[in-house]
Amino acid sequence: MTENAASSIAWTEDGSDRTSRWQSENGAPPPRVVRIVNDSTTADVAYKMATIGEALLWRGDFNNARQLLSAMTRRVPAAKHMPDASPAERFHLHRQYQARRARVLGMLLVELDSDVRLGLGRAPDVTAAVTEALGPDAAPCVLSLRELLGMIGAHEWRRTGVFVPALDASIHPHYGVFSPVRGEYVRLVTDAPLPVTDRAFDIGTGSGVLAAVLARRGVASVVATDKDPRSVACARANIEALGYADRVEVVQTDIFPPGRAGLIVCNPPWIPTKPTSGIEHAVYDPGSRMLKSFLSRLRGHLAPNGEAWLVVSDLAELLELVTRAELLTAIDAAGLTVVGRTDTTPTHSRVTDSTDVLHEARSRETTSLWRLRAR
């Protein structure tokens, strides 16, 4: 839960002043102006209110609220075509566009009562979804409908899971934890030649998928780390469900656990800019803090003749946010040498989506597993 999640939102309804706890996953401050709206509110009126910073607290039918949100979404102008912009300019302008769009669509609000329920007609039971996302003390609160729908979607992902061929089983991602739907990095770790070792670290484990792959490949002891409590809980649940709890320990810490290992695997965030929500920490890392910290401290945690696998996309290079030379310099400065590299191309839907503002870069993206050893 974000720092702003515990602040309050205030409004006037039926002549009385009301307040509730404000919940925002991305840390947005509570709106200053809140209007009560219902089934009679048109999409044009709702969109205009949202664009001038007025929040709409919904008191109508739940399904109508979803339809209103869809109608508001259609009224958001499309991202501008930027043929003369550099890749970096295009990326930053697109991030600004996404932030403005999210801000406007996030103005349609709903209220959860103390029983984690919506007092709306035809409303679904959201208790499990909200409790999984925010914990047992989540309600009462007011939050955006978009955020609530995200929790409902995450609940379904968690229930059904994502099948991982390398495990011949499913990983069940939790709310706010990156799902292993981009399977290329899992394949790289599955296929890389495994060094002779009985101990490995999985740094920034997320859902725990790579730690599970290492255990399935025969590593006797794996320590998986993450600094995010949601990721730690998610990884522990997945490791337990997969039957690897006797070989995989999940630890909440920043980067490395104590000690050394003969194999250290890290799939860090690959875009060096600020994340805007919890789940974006798996992709966005300001100044490449995690990558730099991992490399600079790596030698102190590698066992003699040990090997590290750095799994990273070159999308930031294609967007001209970093250079390959910067990565190689950081590797060299850390007293490391590259002993091998395996490349693969992503297969996710954005690679072929020509309407994506960043399509030109995404269509050329490569994900690589860099094999590193101490000099």
From TrEMBL:
It comes from the Bacteria. Residues 1-10 have a biased composition (Polar residues). CDD domains: AdoMet_MTases. PROSITE patterns: N6_MTASE (PS00092). Residues 193-314 form the Methyltransferase small domain. GO terms for molecular function: methyltransferase activity. GO terms for biological process: methylation. Keywords: Methyltransferase, Transferase. Residues 1-31 are annotated as: Disordered. Pfam families: MTS. This is Class I SAM-dependent methyltransferase. It comes from Rhodococcus navarretei.
